Protein: Multicopper oxidase
Organism: Levilactobacillus paucivorans
Amino acid sequence: MTKSIYTDYFFDEPAYNTHDGGYVPLEEPTTPEQPLRIPPLLKPDKETATDTYYTVEAQAGETQLLPGKKTKTWGYNGSLLGQTIVFAKGKTMHIDLKNSLPELTTFHWHGLNVPGPYTDGGCHAPVYPGKTRHIDFKVDQPAATLWLHAHPCPSTAEQVWHGLAGLALVTDDVEAKLPFPRHYGVDDIPLVLQDRRFHEDNQWDYDADYDPDGVQGPTAMINGTINPYFDVTTQRLRLRILDGANRREWRLHFSDDLPFTQVASDGGVLPSPVEFTHLMLTCAERAEIIVDFGKIQPGKTVTLYSDDVPLVRFRVHDFAADDVTLPEHLVDIPDPEVTPDTPVRKVVMSGMDEAVMMDGKKFEMQRIDARQKVGNVELWDITNTNDMDGGMVHPFHMHGTQFRVLSRNGHEPYANEHGLKDTVGVNPGETVRIKVWFEHTGVYMYHCHIIEHEDGGMMAQIEAYDPDNPKTYKLMDMDTLMNAIAEERGIDVKDLRLAGMSSYEKMGMKM
Ligand SMILES: [Cu+2]
C-alpha cells in the first residue's frame, strides 16, 4: 500500500497572514551564514533516581547576532532563549526560578500538565527582580517537546520578544523504544522559529515595531541564529520545530520538495507517522519531523524554507546507511469516553487589532470565566468569528492540559491533529471541536497565542476544581503588577506604557 504524502498546508489559504494589511514578509538575510546554535542541555544542580533539581535563571545579556554591535537580549541561563531542560517522566522536579532581570517576570511551562496557577507560571505567579520562586512537580505525561516562556500580563509579548523562550523536553520509556533519532545536538535538534527586525546598532525595538495584531520582523531567527546552516552527519535527522514567534505562521518546505515525516505534535508522539512535503505551524505549535537524507549525495545542501525564504541550510556530509521503516502505529493516545450528555462549552474568539476578545470580553485577572470538574470530559467548540478578508488564523492555546482535536466545522481534523495538542489554529469562520479534561486542579488561562492578541485581552481563565477538595486562589490584580513594573522602571505608574494596554484603552476598558 502506498501511503499518501500531503502536499498542502491544510489551513485556509486566504487567511494566511500574508493577506493581512500589517503583514511583514520575511527577507533573506545578506549576512554571512552562521553555524546553527544548539541550545545546551541544562545541567541539573543535583539528581537522584527519583528527583531532579534545576535552577532556571532569567537574565539580561548581549548576543552576537549580526556582524558589528551585539544585540541586547534576554534569556534563561544564557543571554538569549534558554538552555534545554529535560523532564524525565515519573521523576519529581524541584526548580528554583530566579529572576535576575530588572523587571518582574513569570516562568510558564507551555504544554506541561501541572497544577495552576502558580506552578503553571502564568500571570498569577510573578517573580520580582532579585527574587527566586521555588516549584516542585511530578512529571506525569508522555514524551513531548514543550517550552518555557515568560507570561506576565500584559507584557508577555514584549518579554518573549526580548528572548525569554526555552525548550523543555519530556522523556519516557515509550518514546525511547521507538526508532527515532535521539542524539541531542547531532541527529535530534530543536528549531525555534522566530523573527525580528534589527534597528540601529543591531538592536531590537519592540515599541517601534508594535502592532496590536502581533509584532513581526523581516529577519528569521532560528535558535537565536541569523542565516544558519547545520552539518548533517547522519542519514536521518529529527527536527523538533517550535513556532516561537509572536505572530508569524511558518509555511515550511524543503528544497526540491523533499518529503518528511511528522512523528509528534504539541503533546507528544502521534498515533501514526504522517508524511508531508509542506507543513504550516501557527504560533506556539510544535511538530517533530524526521527528514531522511538517504537519497541526497554528500556535499549537497538541502534548504528549509518558509514561503520562498531560506531558514536553515542543511549541509549533507558522509553518513552511515540508516534505512528505517517507521511502524504504522507509534503510540496509543488517551481518549476519554464521550456520551450524549457530555457538556459542550462554546468559546468565541472575535475581533482584530485592539478589538480582540474572548467570549465578548477582554481578559480580567481576577475573573474566573469557567469551571470544569477535574477528571470530567467536556467538548469545547472554539469559534473564530473573523471573516476571510481581514481576519487571521487564531492559534487557541490552553494551559494545564493536553486536548484532542475532534473536528473542524464538522469535518475530520487535519491528518497531523490526531495526537495530543495544547494549541490549535482556528481558521476565520471556523469552529474547531476539541475534547478537554484536566488532571490537576488550578486556575488556568486559555487564549489566542498571537501574543499581542493575548496581551490585548483575547484570553480568559478556567478553574479546574475538585468538589471534594475545594481551594481558594490568590489571584494577582493588574494594579499590583503595574505599580511594581512602574517602580522597577523608576517612573510614575501614570506614565507606564505596556503594549497590551492600548487594546483596553481604545475599547474604553480598564485592564
Ligand atoms: Cu489571535
Summary: The pocket of copper (II) ion is lined by residues 392, 394, 448, 450, 453, 458 (CB under 6 Å). The mean pLDDT is 95.
